[in-house]
Amino acid sequence: MPNPYSRLFELPGTRAFTLGNLVARLPMGMFGVSAIIMIAERYGSYALAGAVTATGLAATAVVGPYTARLVDRHGQARIALPAAAVAVVGSLLLALCVHLHAPAWTLFAAYALTATTPNTGGMSRARWQHLYAGDPARLHTANSFEQAADELCFMLGPVVAAFLCTALLPEAGTLTGAALLLTGILLFTAQRSTEPPPQREVTKTASPLHAPGMLPLVVVFLATGAVFGSMEVVTVAYADAQGHASAAGPVLALQAAGSCAAGLLYGTRAPGGPARRRFLFCLTAMAALMTLPLLAAGTGSLPLLAGALLVAGMATAPTMVTGMGLVQAHTPEGRLNEGMTLAVTGLLGGIACGSALGGQAVEHVSARAGYLVPVTAAALALVLFSTVSVYARSTRRRIPRQSPPAASPNPSPKAPAASEPSP
């Protein structure tokens, strides 16, 4: 049986746009960590560093869907490159302001400019959707590959950023990330043969958020993002409390590694059953497996916690792959990049909320108790989607079936009524 991933790259241009997208996507895992280390080192304040990155995250949540709408309307090459250029200018200004120890407000202003960073993962998924719209099996493999790529970038990004900022100079991570983003976008947008055509007329309609079933999915992604955000903060605090703060990065990388491996394996299996049922199963598995880090934290063993995070992470990629597949199914034609960016916006909002809640739990209770936050967030995502599914089924049952139209009393001799046999 041929490898489904080798079949995925049979079309010309797929390898080239994937390489460019991976180069552009790696900085997504670098910018946040780089900014925190850089600002904390130069200004001596983690509170300022956290506030600046939170502001950038909030700006991205607001600006991101509008950037994605322009990409759908005018094309990826025409919009993504200038949008990335503005974001790179913002990163360079941030590094310069930090290096010169400029007033704090300049950091907020500079980092807000990075909100125009295009959703590289969404654009790549839109290309796969364009290329394999009539092949559900390959599209499933493509979505699994993209999720594994996300996990890989968020696994390597923080490690690379931390090394550059500590081994070279505090601004090195931000400068490198900016260079990679611009280079990757240039490579990606140069591959015009695989680019989806612009949808100028379609994108003038209402936002995909108004499409049936779309808003509940974004809310579920919000709860799912809270799992990721809280897990990161709580794990860093737990490792610090154990006297091994430097081990937090490798421990979190194991969670991403588990997710990456599960995503690649999930892509080799043909999807079975309705997508909503599979998503419900994945959310159930995630809610169950997120209890493992909570139990492992009670032992006080960091290696045991690392193993628990590795296993817990295996539910993440299948959940995200299936969820993104549902988003694609609910997004109106021609609005795919905007629809997926809305889902990512939900994730970003959830990550911000989860980080805040996890920090509060660690500060006011304990690092171990902080692991209750991702468990609760995963359970909430499951309950929300289950409730929506039950409501949708009950609504369908209440809709009466339409009776067939009554036969005309005076049928035309050339078109006999259906109830009467044709002569």
Description:
- The structure is a single chain.
- The protein is mainly alpha-helical.
- The protein has two domains: 14-135 and 158-199, no CATH class; 205-398, Growth Hormone, Chain: A, CATH 1.20.1250.
- It is built from 18 helices and no strands.
- Helix 8 (136-167) packs antiparallel against helix 9 (172-189), helix 11 (248-268) crosses helix 15 and helix 12 packs antiparallel against helix 15 (316-330).
- The chain is globular.
- Mean pLDDT is 79; it is low at 399-423.
- Residues 396-423 are annotated as: Disordered.
- The chain crosses the membrane at residues 22-40, 46-67, 79-102, 160-188, 209-228, 248-267, 279-298, 304-327, 339-359, 371-392.
- Residues 402-414 have a biased composition (Pro residues).
- Keywords: Membrane, Transmembrane, Transmembrane helix.
The class by helix and strand makeup works out as: mainly alpha
Total of DSSP H or I helical runs spanning 4+ residues? 18
Helix content: over 70%
Number of domains: 2
CA-based gyration radius: 24 Å
Termini separation (Å)?
56 Å
Strand content: under 5%
Give the tally of β-strands. 0
CATH fold-type name of the largest domain: Growth Hormone, Chain: A
Biggest beta sheet attributes: none
InterPro entries: MFS, MFS_trans_sf
Keywords: Membrane, Transmembrane, Transmembrane helix
Protein name: MFS transporter
Write the SSE topology.
Layout: H1 4-8, H2 14-25, H3 31-43, H4 46-74, H5 76-99, H6 104-112, H7 120-131, H8 136-167, H9 172-189, H10 214-241, H11 248-268, H12 275-289, H13 291-297, H14 302-312, H15 316-330, H16 336-364, H17 367-370, H18 372-398
